[in-house]
């Protein structure tokens, strides 16, 4: 099914897990560290400038944001791991993310974003472990790919093999909002996993 990505709409934001409505459709989730580029990726996917609000301030997405397209929700989870946030706020985020991912919703895939330029953080690894342990289907999206020269990029890909457990068994997509690398592949996956 070819989706018309331009038709995506912002649906709602929720600050606590208990506010989430019942899941009534297929969902695609986006997870990752604060400032890894989730909102930017969502905008590129939908070919929109600012459907998802992009902030230069890490930790800005403190809610779960739902975007609707046909019979699919695209769900932007709060960025985790931002140091300058009160402990209570961190706990709220973590409750939101855990609650959402452990719920009985029809989550078809999680796009797990990691900044390609750096080793994954402890929180990234925790998240990847959680996805593996719960057998949640996910794809590793390496963001900011355009910021690396060819050699640096090869070095990072090599380093990931020792930094991320099971890296070589994962479906990995390098992504760049500048060159559009990865956009078509991500859309193809969305269409594949949401076909009923």
Tell me what you see in this structure.
This protein has one domain: P-loop containing nucleotide triphosphate hydrolases (Rossmann fold). It has 5 helices and 7 strands. It starts with 8 loop residues before the first strand and ends with a helix. By secondary structure, it is of the alpha/beta class.
Q: Specify Rg, calculated over alpha carbons.
A: 16 Å
Helical segment tally? 5
Instruction: Give helix % range.
Output: 25-40%
Please list the strands of the largest sheet in the order they lie side by side.
Answer: 1-3-4-2-5-6-7
Runs with pLDDT <50, length 5+?
none
Q: Keywords for this structure?
A:
7 strands; 5 helices; 31% helix; Rossmann fold; alpha/beta
Write the SSE topology.
Elements: E1 9-14, E2 26-32, H1 38-45, E3 64-69, E4 72-76, H2 87-102, E5 107-115, H3 122-133, E6 138-143, H4 150-163, E7 172-174, H5 183-193
Parallel strand pairs: 2-4, 2-5, 5-6, 6-7
Antiparallel strand pairs: 1-3, 3-4
């Amino acid at each position: 099914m070819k989706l018309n990505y331009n038709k995506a709409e912002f649906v709602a934001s929720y600050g606590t897990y208990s506010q989430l409505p019942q899941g009534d459709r297929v969902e695609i989730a986006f997870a990752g560290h604060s400032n890894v580029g989730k909102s930017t990726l969502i905008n590129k996917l939908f070919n929109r400038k600012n459907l998802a609000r992009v902030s230069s301030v890490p930790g800005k997405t403190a809610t779960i944001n739902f975007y609707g397209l046909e019979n699919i929700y695209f769900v932007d989870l709060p960025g985790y791991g931002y140091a300058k946030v009160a402990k209570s706020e961190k706990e709220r985020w973590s409750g939101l993310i855990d609650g959402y991912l452990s719920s009985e919703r029809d989550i078809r895939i999680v796009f797990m974003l990691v900044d390609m330029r750096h080793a994954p953080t402890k929180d990234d690894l925790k998240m990847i472990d959680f996805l593996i342990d719960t057998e949640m289907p996910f794809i590793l999206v390496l963001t900011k790919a355009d910021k690396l020269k060819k050699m640096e990029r090869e070095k990072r890909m090599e380093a990931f093999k020792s930094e991320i457990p099971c890296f070589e068994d994962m479906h990995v997509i390098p992504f760049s909002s500048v060159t559009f690398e990865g956009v078509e592949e991500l859309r193809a996956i969305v269409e594949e996993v949401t076909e009923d």
